[in-house]
Amino acid sequence: MSFLLVAALFPFLSLALPSLHTPSLHLRSPSYRPRIITYYADWATPKSIDYALFDIVIFAFALPDQNYQLRWDTDQAPNLLANVVHEAHAGTTKVMLSIGGWTGSRPVPSYFSSAVATAQSREIFANNILDVYMHCDLDGIDIDWEYPGQTGEPGNTESATDAPNMLQFFKVLQQKLPPGALISAAVQDSTFVGPNGQPMKDVSAFSQFVDWITLMNYDAYSTRQPPGPNAPLSNACGTSSEPSQNAVGGYNAWTSAGFPPSKIVLGVPSYGYIIESNARRLSERSSYRAYSEDGTGQIQFQSLINQGILTQYPNGSFRAAESSGFTREWDQCSATPYLRSNSADQVISYDDIESLSIKAAWVKKMNMGGVNLFDVHGDTPQHHLVHALRDNLYTQPTISSSVVHSPSAVASPPNTIPSPTSTVSSSSNALSSALPGGIMLIPSRN
């Protein structure tokens, strides 16, 4: 089962979403086709991957060193990348290399800031990237600097001129790479910090040199107490302690600063977080205990299944297994699910087929550049999460007798989001959850 989307004929009483900035190019162009992208982490490789499901695979990570050359973060990375390129290029999937990442932005001291600081260092850095690009037969470069003008992880270094220097670096990199090479950047929900220490109010110049930015709309609360959503769609209740850290907030921040929606890709997670808590709801805000394989508190979607916490029901949905002691709840303020166990005193904030379907439908509605999954190994071997994203980006909606496909619903921004029900009907076309702007989620058989 996948979730397909249709536009509702009638309005619904709902929670109001924050208003969205609506740029002049909001209307969809005839050639509009959002991208399906995923990160491929070299420290957590998937058992299998169907490359045909993806337009682009971004291999993570390479790191800049003190000489502005690229080094690998694991010994097996070069061979893994070569295999990814070989298998992806057997079809039409492109492969990019991501430089940086959270820890990759912090060899002590950080070398991103100095690598882009002068015309000479930018030239050296770009030439070294070009060497790796050509040697590895890549199709593009992703810059994941966390974060220009900000400390990021403790021990990182930054400069007030990081953002303008990075803009000049992107210009040099575009000139160095072959024609048609892709360039992207992973960014926060807020715009780059400028020389005045505040988010930049005009980032339009960056769009000239990058093909897209990925909004890293995840890790909003991680394992903090009290528990909060990992990847909120919006601050629908208006009571979040992180009111700008959500997909709608990121869209508003970047588009109001002049960045085109068609070049904004929404980052979505294939993982959640385990929080030791007996909270009954997400903050704004049994016999089973979930465990994190890497000790960080992160738990992959597939791990929730492996640990017997989630199970797939006959209608295709993934719900809490009755024997697990967990119950699946829905946080209407962020449009994300969470799992709660009173016996284990645990709360798990995560994303699933339903919440990712909503995010993908919103991306399509807003004419954004696509979605980017971090990362592919957290999905099931059958790629349930990816199929939910693809279905809602590419599949034409099924029109029932109670709905119409309204042009006005496509052109106008989201403004409402009712709470989904906790179950999905397998015997009818009953609406299971509502999307912003009257776009509805319904079950459909594949």
Write the layout of secondary structure elements.
Blueprint: E1 2-7, E2 15-16, E3 35-41, E4 56-64, E5 70-72, H1 77-89, E6 94-100, H2 112-115, H3 119-135, E7 140-144, H4 162-176, E8 182-187, E9 212-215, H5 247-256, E10 264-269, E11 271-276, E12 298-300, H6 301-306, E13 310-312, E14 318-320, E15 327-331, E16 336-341, E17 346-349, H7 353-365, E18 370-374, H8 384-394, H9 407-411, E19 416-417, E20 433-434, E21 439-444
Helix pairs in contact: 3-4, 7-8
Domain GH18: 34-396
Catalytic activity: Random endo-hydrolysis of N-acetyl-beta-D-glucosaminide (1->4)-beta-linkages in chitin and chitodextrins
Pfam family, one: Glyco_hydro_18
Q: Can you walk me through this structure?
A:
- This protein is of the alpha/beta class.
- 21% of the residues lie in helices and 22% in strands.
- The chain is built from 9 helices and 21 strands.
- The strands form 5 sheets. Strands 3-4-6-7-8-9-10-18 form an 8-stranded parallel β-barrel, surrounded by 6 helices. Strands 12-11-17-16-15 form a 5-stranded antiparallel beta sheet. The chain has a 3-stranded antiparallel beta sheet with strand order 1-21-20.
- It is globular, with a radius of gyration of 21 Å.
Helical residue percent band = 10-25%
Helix/strand structural class: alpha/beta
The first-to-last residue Cα distance is: 6 Å
β content, as a range? Answer: 15-25%
Poorly predicted spans: 1-19, 21-27, 397-446
How does the major sheet shape up? 8 strands, parallel, barrel
User: What assembly state would you assign to the polypeptide chains in this entry?
Assistant: single chain
The H-and-E topology, N to C, reads as EEEEEHEHHEHEEHEEEHEEEEEHEHHEEE
The average pLDDT is 82
Shape: globular
Total helical segments: 9
The Rg value, from CA coordinates, equals 21 Å
Q: Trace the largest sheet across and list its strands.
A: 3-4-6-7-8-9-10-18
Q: Count every beta strand, where a strand is a DSSP E run of 2 or more residues.
A: 21
